Amino acid sequence: MKIAILPGDGIGPEIVAEAVKVLRALALPLEMETAPVGGAAYEAAGHPLPDATLALAQQADAVLFGAVGDWKYDTLPRPLRPEQAILGLRKQLGLFANFRPALCYEQLTHASSLKPELVAGLDILIIRELTGDIYFGQPRGRRAAPDGPFAGAEEAFDTMRYSRPEIERIARVAFEAARQRNRKVTSVDKANVLETFQLWKDVVTEVHRDYPDVELDHMYVDNAAMQLVKAPKKFDVIVTGNMFGDILSDEAAMLTGSIGMLPSASLNERGQGLYEPSHGSAPDIAGKGVANPLATILSAAMMLRYSLKQPEAADRIEAAVQRVLAQGLRTADIASPGCTVVGTAQMGDAVVRALG
Ligand code: IPM
Ligand code: MG
């Protein structure tokens, strides 16, 4: 089993090192090869996604990804910015199905910005379409406005588009996932305004005929944003497009009070996947040894489960993380009175010990 390790920028290298430590401790036949990505790759090779890094990711069974981005690259031309690396990997590997669980850990309930009773036991799964929508739609660019009240003025434009097969496949992923959970899918759209999302709604409704055992409801994205802070536990699986999924998944992650705990998986049709923490590169705390490695360690567990078909190893990691929390160990982001605050490497070591 071959894993491409792409640590990236900011806290990426520190947190990925801990996940690698945990993977090695499992003593599975895993071949791991590291390559630069994001700003680190721009520094080393002049491009955020060098050909060699892309080739390594394509050959691997799975990619373990840290994070990319740093304010210092904000002035680079767009094609050279670190974010292009993750967008390029998603597109080139066809990683259309993005799983973003938002789970509120019992010990961390108090860390949420919502009242504990609203989030205690929260367990929702956002399934975000990841290779279409306004993120990738062509045409896009800048030009002189061809018409309208500001004809001739400089304008910029992007294109929101989804095709029937793209919607069908992500809808199937969502219904299948719901069958493993509480059999409820909420499809989030903006069909009241956008053609793209009227098609989305129509196609999701059609696909639902194959899944009569799963409950489906439709919600406009503005209402979904509101319901997520009002009564988040009403959701089970949320399926939505790339742009809305980007926004709603950050909102949902924050509800749990522990964005430093949340893993994610992005899969293609062959089951090949990219696994990364839901949080970003946090350049403000990079290199200090204080970042929380648990989201990355839990992403490694998802990788074992989904791409490498090693469910027992995945269970072992997840149980070890629970044990470490129960022992009262916390990184600074999830610290609370009475707990022991540890650094990044200490947390990784504790998970290795807890593997048993
Ligand atoms: C995410 C991030 C990315 C996105 C950025 C870094 C391009 O916000 O994975 O949610 O917008 O998809
Ligand atoms: Mg985002």
Automatic annotation (TrEMBL):
Record-annotated Isopropylmalate dehydrogenase-like domain positions: 2-351
Gene3D superfamilies referenced in this protein's UniProt entry, alphabetically: Isopropylmalate Dehydrogenase
Cofactor note: Binds 1 Mg(2+) or Mn(2+) ion per subunit.
Single GO term (MF): magnesium ion binding
Keywords: Amino-acid biosynthesis, Branched-chain amino acid biosynthesis, Cytoplasm, Leucine biosynthesis, Magnesium, Manganese, Metal-binding, NAD, Oxidoreductase
Localization per record: Cytoplasm
Top-level class of the enzyme under EC nomenclature: oxidoreductase
Reaction equation(s) it catalyzes: (2R,3S)-3-isopropylmalate + NAD(+) = 4-methyl-2-oxopentanoate + CO2 + NADH
Positions with a binding annotation for Mg(2+): 222, 246, 250
Binding site for substrate: 90, 100, 128, 222
EC number of this enzyme: 1.1.1.85
Names of required cofactors: Mg(2+); Mn(2+)
Positions in coiled-coil regions: none
Protein name per Swiss-Prot or TrEMBL: 3-isopropylmalate dehydrogenase
Native source species: Tepidimonas aquatica
